[in-house]
Design brief:
The protein has 227 residues and is of the alpha/beta class. Among the domains are: 5-35, no CATH class; 104-221, Trna Endonuclease, Chain: A, domain 1. 60% of the residues lie in helices and 20% in strands. Strand 3 (134-142) and strand 4 form a beta hairpin. It starts with a helix and ends in a 6-residue tail after the last strand.
């Protein structure tokens, strides 16, 4: 049934006056899906808000992580620098301590041999051997009979049996002695090993191979003879 403009206006006016009629009219005219749109929009808005908040927290965490990584890099750089400095300090200490041990060995062997009647011909020195290390202490001497000899000393802070064995092998090697002679250390040799401390095995081997032993307070074992 068609209605005129007057009836339509009266209907509209009545709907404004009666909100419950409008709700009923919506249910009649609109589908459930359309009626549910406001709820869907609200849920979508809430989801977007939560997503935005999660993104904000993620951005904040990323920024915090970047700052933490930067601090880690700075600490790593600082640690690397400290390790480098420590390595240099240890190297310096080793060189200083090594020099101190060699200097002490030189002083001890000089005093010991002077007391035995040897005449020191020149101050003790170290003698590098190309590609094979060096002799820590070389001391040119004249023995009581007027013969020229060389005291040679291997100096270690801690003297082991292995050190004695290696030192004995070097000094009994003809090739090694030839290289010494070429560098002005002609022999024969009084062979000593010096240690701040050494074990019984080292002392037993030194006695067996005829090498003398020195400590800071003097001679522990005299060489068996000249090499």
């Amino acid at each position: 049934m068609a209605i005129g403009i007057t009836e339509f206006r009266e209907l509209v006016s009545a709907l404004y006056e009666h909100p419950e009629w409008r709700e009923e009219l919506r249910r009649l005219v609109l589908t459930d899906e359309i009626l549910g749109l406001p709820r869907v929009v609200r849920e979508l808005a809430e989801a977007l808000r939560e997503l935005a908040e999660a993104q904000r927290r993620t951005d904040q965490r990323v920024e915090e992580l970047a700052e933490a990584l930067q601090r880690t890099d700075q600490r790593l750089d600082l640690l690397t620098q400290r390790v480098d400095n420590l390595g240099k300090a240890v190297g310096d200490l080793q060189r200083t301590f090594g020099s101190t041990v060699e200097e002490e060995a030189a002083s001890v062997v000089e005093v010991v041999l002077r007391r035995k009647g040897y005449r020191v011909l020149q101050p003790p020195y170290s003698l590098p051997i190309d590609g094979q290390g060096e002799i820590d202490v070389v001391l040119p001497l004249e023995d009581p009979a007027g013969r020229r000899v060389w005291a040679v000393v291997e100096a270690k802070a801690r003297l082991s049996r292995r050190d004695i064995q290696a030192w004995a092998q070097r000094m009994t090697s003809p090739e090694w002695r030839r290289q010494l002679a070429e560098r002005g250390c002609e022999g024969p040799y009084l062979v000593y090993a010096y240690g701040i401390r050494f074990d019984l095995g080292a002392q037993e081997l030194a006695e067996s191979v005829g090498i003398g032993l020195l400590k800071s307070d003097g001679e522990v074992l005299a060489p068996r003879g000249l090499i």
